[in-house]
Amino acid sequence: MICETVILLTYYYRQEDRDDGILRHIIGAFCPTYLPFDLYLYEPLKRIFRRVIVYDFLRRRAELGLRAMNDEVLAVVRKERPKYVLWTSFYDDVRNTTLEAIRKEGATVVGWFFDDEWRFSSYSKYWIPYLDYCVTNAISVEPRYRQLGARVIRTVPNTGVAVDVDWAHLKERYDVAFLGSIRTADRRWYLDEFRTNSMSVDVFGEGSGGYVSFQQMLDIYKTSRINLNFSKTGAHPWARQLKGRVFQVCLAGGFLLTEYAPGIENYFELGKQIICFDSPREMVDKARYYLNHEAERRAIARAGWERAKGEYSSSCMVARVFEEIAEDLTSGVRNGNPAAGLKLTINARRVLATYHQEWGRAQIQENDKRGLWEDDLALALLNMPWNTLARFYRLLALLPWSARHAIFNGLLRLEKRRFGVSAQHWIILRSYVRRMIESLLRRPRQGYRG
């Protein structure tokens, strides 16, 4: 036990936040997956440090507003004098100026990043100058962090705790199961391949069987003969990434049949601890094979479980991260900081502008009378002055509540009339079209040798 204090700046570790006033708009738009950071980070930190303070910056932002929440974060740091401040990155809630001020107070600031396979260029790299350490689970971007002078530590996606499994008396309820959103990337197309081949899949999550609790999720993983995982992401469907579900399934003792993601072989032995596929046809063929070869399937599931519980539980991963930090702090070696000269690209500005714009919209739509929307819409326009939606919401806020309510209901009906396609799917469709056009433009002309 280390006799130090740690402050964990985190968000959305309570499922009830999904139904909470302003927060439900933000969580629905930007954080569709429930993240039990109390299990992933808080409990492991308590095993290492004498005192761990949790600060839910998303909930406090909804309660206080952006400016007051950042002031409160700094006040907590000054009062508690922590050794470390661990910030689980999201968007632009805890401001870069706040992180910089925390460092000046003497705390070591650690930024924990997610989805760096597609977020590094438009988000993560711009935070390097304000952090002492960056934690990522993306193997491919680790060198890019180092090129920008970051002290980076690689870990695995959010994992969890190992589930006790009685392998001799294990009762399985489902043949093939998938737990997650079927609206993401090409998952529906993959799942339809089972129906085409007269095989059933039990699906749980957004767009199908509805949300399940964290404990129910573990039970499903444990009692399914085959657990599916897909590696593509929503707004960036061409990028494959290592998902936390890979480790969650194995920690629960489940058999994992996963779409291949670059680097996954660094964590599990393919063919012996987990099974991978690259196409719908291969997925169905392997599912059918392992349903008919129970002994082989159970041996693979058990091998994956033993590997995961020995190396990839949250306790193991968090302990490893802070061991590396402690060793580095002792060495006293410091790199330069080329990232300090980075300027936000238009795409990076658009990401931040959209986020603040949606906070402004949520506050106006929920009839928040404190005027907190003004700060958010001002930041949206600061990042993207041509943001017409932010200007529209500014005008909308001046109308009586009855008029605003009618307009928001009209916008919602208009959204639903998009042939039943959600805004997220329009983003994906536009991304596909844009990449197709870009690939055609980059294609060498006939007779040209590059």
Automatic annotation (TrEMBL):
Q: Name one GO molecular function term.
A: transferase activity
Domain of life (superkingdom): Bacteria
Q: Which InterPro entries match?
A: YkvP/CgeB_Glyco_trans-like (IPR055259)
Keyword terms: Transferase
Spore protein YkvP/CgeB glycosyl transferase-like domain spans which residues? 187-315
Name the UniProt record assigns to this protein: Glycosyltransferase family 1 protein
To which species is this protein native? Candidatus Segetimicrobium genomatis
